[in-house]
Amino acid sequence: MDELTVNHEAAIQELRDMHNITMTTLHEEHARTMRGKTHTFDQVDTLLFQKSSLRDKAKRFEEALRRSTDEQIGDALAPYQHIEEDLKSLKDVVEMKNNQIHQQEKKISDLERVAQKNVLLEERMQMLQQQNEDLMARIDNNLENVEKESSEKKRLSRNNEELLWRLQTSPLCSPCSSPIHRSFSTSPTPSSCLFSSSPGLGGGTGFLPSTPTHGYSPSHRENQNRSPGPATPTHRGFSNQNQSPGPATPTHRGFSNQNQSPGPATPTHRVSPNHRHSPARLNPLMR
User: Fold this and answer.
1) Which of 18, 70, 137, 195 lies most in the core, judged by the most C-beta atoms within 10 Å?
2) Cα–Cα distance between 236 and 21 in angstroms, integer?
3) What single DSSP character describes residue 259?
């Protein structure tokens, strides 16, 4: 019985020792755990403080960023505040430029048509210049012919004057200067001066050989505007020069009126084939 008690007490003591050791271990673990919890709480408090501080800082940053963003957006949108007005003005400018382009195209087309007309006009002008040169050459030729004809007429006029002077200064006396001739010179009969009062003239037959002195007697000069008989030598040789004598008489070839057209056998006609162009018509061209 004593051994059981001793064993029982020994077992109880051993259990107490184990209990004390276990309790000591648990107290130590509890203390460590409490210290860990305290440290953890301190960390939590620190983190919470940091969290609040960071939240405040974030709020400040957000506000600052919002303000700066609004300012930047305002600054960025400032040039585009009048964008609608600018677009409208640009549309007006584009429309005006399009109208100007259409007008320029129209002007260009008009200028092209004018250029084509100018080309045609230049070709026509060249053709007209060529025709003008040809006409000027013809005019020069006509002027040369007119000058030749004028010189020929002057020469013939001088010859006529010389012949007239020779006839007037001839020593032969015409019987037509008698009063009988003066009485018959006004008569249209063709036998006014056919017979001579002097048998020495005309070979004794009484017929005058169409001497030029007969037409330039004083009585004949008084009656030159009157028309003698068409068959008399006086009429053929020395009638009024404004009338057209016969084409076969020498007097006609020598003393016809110079204002009339020469016959085809005269030197003047042969020299100037363009005699139809009178100097009066060419005077404006010569000027």
Assistant:
1) 195
2) 197
3) T
